[in-house]
């Protein structure tokens, strides 16, 4: 596994990455974002979407964070099914935490489906804590778990 992680590069997302990003998005979520949503993120002054390139310079994951004043927020993150459980998601979230800290964020927040145990475990292992719940937040009525990572002074 270590060799595979060494082949991963995290870079800013560009419009040329969107075809591959949309494949992962569609495979990952029951109501995936459309191309326009990603274009909005690419053009937002507050967003800094990233992609993870794997073997053969292929997009294997992405994350869409934003930073407004001192508040970071992760809007969307997904990893290609073939690379899940191999540390790609961790690398993406760690990069966002580093970038947000360097840009002066006090904390980073996110919402995660209450039934997404693997994502919740990842976030908890990185130091995110539960801050609340949003009832019936998702399209199928699932609750969202609100989580935050607070930077120490």
TrEMBL record:
<comment type="function">
    <text>Acetylates the N-terminal alanine of ribosomal protein bS18.</text>
</comment>
<dbReference type="Pfam" id="PF00583">
    <property type="entry name" value="Acetyltransf_1"/>
</dbReference>
<dbReference type="GO" id="GO:0005737">
    <property type="term" value="C:cytoplasm"/>
</dbReference>
<feature type="domain" description="N-acetyltransferase">
    <location>
        <begin position="8"/>
        <end position="152"/>
    </location>
</feature>
<keyword id="KW-0012">Acyltransferase</keyword>
<dbReference type="GO" id="GO:0008999">
    <property type="term" value="F:protein-N-terminal-alanine acetyltransferase activity"/>
</dbReference>
<dbReference type="InterPro" id="IPR006464">
    <property type="entry name" value="AcTrfase_RimI/Ard1"/>
</dbReference>
<protein>
    <recommendedName>
        <fullName>[Ribosomal protein bS18]-alanine N-acetyltransferase</fullName>
        <ecNumber>2.3.1.266</ecNumber>
    </recommendedName>
</protein>
<dbReference type="InterPro" id="IPR016181">
    <property type="entry name" value="Acyl_CoA_acyltransferase"/>
</dbReference>
<keyword id="KW-0963">Cytoplasm</keyword>
<dbReference type="InterPro" id="IPR050680">
    <property type="entry name" value="YpeA/RimI_acetyltransf"/>
</dbReference>
<keyword id="KW-0808">Transferase</keyword>
<comment type="similarity">
    <text>Belongs to the acetyltransferase family. RimI subfamily.</text>
</comment>
<dbReference type="InterPro" id="IPR000182">
    <property type="entry name" value="GNAT_dom"/>
</dbReference>
């Amino acid at each position: 596994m270590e060799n595979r992680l060494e082949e991963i590069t995290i870079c800013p997302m560009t419009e040329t990455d969107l075809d591959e990003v949309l494949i992962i998005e569609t495979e990952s979520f029951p109501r995936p974002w459309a191309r326009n949503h990603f274009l909005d993120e690419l053009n937002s002054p507050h967003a800094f979407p990233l992609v993870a390139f794997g073997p053969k310079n292929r997009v294997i994951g992405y994350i869409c964070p934003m930073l407004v004043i001192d508040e970071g927020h992760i809007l969307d993150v997904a990893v290609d099914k073939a690379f899940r459980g191999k540390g790609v998601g961790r690398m993406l979230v760690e990069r966002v935490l580093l970038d947000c800290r360097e840009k002066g964020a006090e904390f980073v927040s996110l919402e995660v489906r209450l039934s997404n145990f693997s994502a919740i475990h990842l976030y908890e292992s990185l130091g995110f804590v539960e801050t609340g719940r949003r009832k019936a937040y998702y399209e199928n009525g699932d609750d969202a778990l609100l989580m935050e990572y607070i930077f120490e002074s």
